Structure formats: structure tokens, C-alpha cells
Amino acid sequence: MKNNSMAGILLVTDLDGTLVTDKGVIPARNMEAIKRFIDKGGLFTFATGRSVLGTERFASKVPLNAPCVVYNGGGIYDFRTKTLLWSHYLPGIFMELVDAVKKQFPDVGIEVYAGGGVYYVNRNEYTKAHISLLGIDGADSAGEQDLPRSNKVLFCGDAGRLMEVSACLEGMPHDGCEFVFSGPTYFEILPAGITKAAAVKILGGMLGVAPERVMSIGDYYNDIEMLKEAAVSAVPDGVPAEVRAAADLVVGPCEGGAVADFIEHLEARFG
């Protein structure tokens, strides 16, 4: 008799630092556990800050059976049908913020995520490393006239420098925009009200999954709301204290297969 103990459960994982190591590798334990979770009736997907293109290489490797949250909550994309199911865009004022950062902080990299791709308003050593991590490159952009509707802006630079960028933008008019650190060297502009948690809620509604059957795992500040709102949530070992406090449990480190650890916990709890 088939074990359907995970039926009706939606498991949402962050990618970088959670499912995927800093070397861009998915630990084998994770892959084995994901397949087992799905075989038991579970729904598995990602919630990532990456663009559609930046997510695609992992979506092609992992046996996803639900649409993904991309752009840190700015979009929901179904890689099985190659369809953007839902999206939310930045207000036009975002380019004023981008222009201000480019002028005052010429050393900070600026990436704009739009139309499924990435546009580079300013490149630096951090954007070069990010391109390598993503496995994709994008077009250079001189400004708003080059960009289709945009889902988010990513600033890349030294952590201390990004704190200065944050203070600068907080002091400017930014109606319709919110700011979040998505990594030690990444700071983002998102549409107001847009978080991974908000998009996961929309995704759950699309799939008919009750909120008490949504589980999540993530590792950074942009995952906090998603961790807090999940019925059961976890973080890999070694995350910042504030992120750790948002989750129900701490599993092993990303490199050892944190997602597999979490799936094993869910199997013991619901199986």
C-alpha cells in the first residue's frame, strides 16, 4: 500500500544557502529526500530571490511538482508549463532610487530584474561573482527607457557600503517600495507588500493547500516572514540569530543536506 503521509503538504525551500550550497551544489541527500517526499504525496517548490532564468537550472534538476516563487515574492512561475502565473511590479519611482545610488555610490553593483531577465545598470566585482553564481549574464542598461516592467532591484557590494545605501534610500521618497537584505552583500528594492511569505500564501491558494499544511525552510532575513507564517519552519545551522528566532527548529548546515534533515523531521511528525 502506497504511503501518502505527505499528501496535502506544501514544502517551500529557499535556494541559496538552504537547498543549494555556496558552490552552487545541491547535496545528494536533499535530492533523495525530495524524491521521497513527492512519492509520499507532498508538493515541493522553491521561494527564491533569483530571476526566472537564474532559477531555471535548479528547476531542471529538482523534481518540482508545484510552481515557484521568484523575485523574492515578486512573481510565481510554473517551470513545467513555462508560464508566469502571477507577478507584481515596482512603481516607476524605483529608477529615481537606482539613479541616486549609481551617482552617490559608483562602486556598488546594480542589477534590475525585469521581463524574466537581468539588466546591469552598474557592474562591479560583486556582480561578476553573482553572474558566476547564477550561471547567467544579462544586458547592460543605461536607465529606465531600456527596461520592461521590473520586479526588483539588487544592489551588490561590501556589507558596510550597503548599510550606507540602505540609509540613503530610507531617507528618500520611496512610496510603493520596500527594502530588504537578502544576503551579506545583497540589498534589494521590492514592491511594497511583496515578500516570499505573501507570494507563498497566494501560491497556496492556487494549489488549494490550507495554511496549516504549508512548511518552509530558509536561511536569511528575506526568509523571516515566510518562516514565521509557515505551520512548521526550519533554518540551517549557522544562520543569523534573528532568522533562527523566526523558525520552529534548527537542522544541520546547508552543506550537509539541511532540506533532507527537515523532510526527515516532517516524515517523523506526519508519517
The biggest beta sheet reads:
6 strands, mixed
Which structural class fits the helix and strand makeup?
alpha/beta
The largest beta-sheet arranges its strands as 8-7-6-9-11-10
Low-pLDDT parts are none
Quick one: overall form? globular
Would you count the extended β strands for me? 14
Going by CATH, the architecture of the largest domain would be: 3-Layer(aba) Sandwich
Proportion in helices:
25-40%
Q: CATH homologous superfamily of the largest domain, by name?
A: HAD superfamily/HAD-like
Q: Give helix and strand order, one letter per element, not per position.
A: EHEHEEEHEEHEEHEEHEHEHEH
| CATH level 1 class label of the largest domain | Alpha Beta
Counting structural domains, the number is: 2
The end-to-end span amounts to 14 Å
- Per DSSP, what share of the residues sits in E-state strands of 2 or more residues? 15-25%
What is the residue-mean pLDDT, rounded to a whole number? 94
The number of distinct helices, counting runs of at least 4 residues, comes to 9
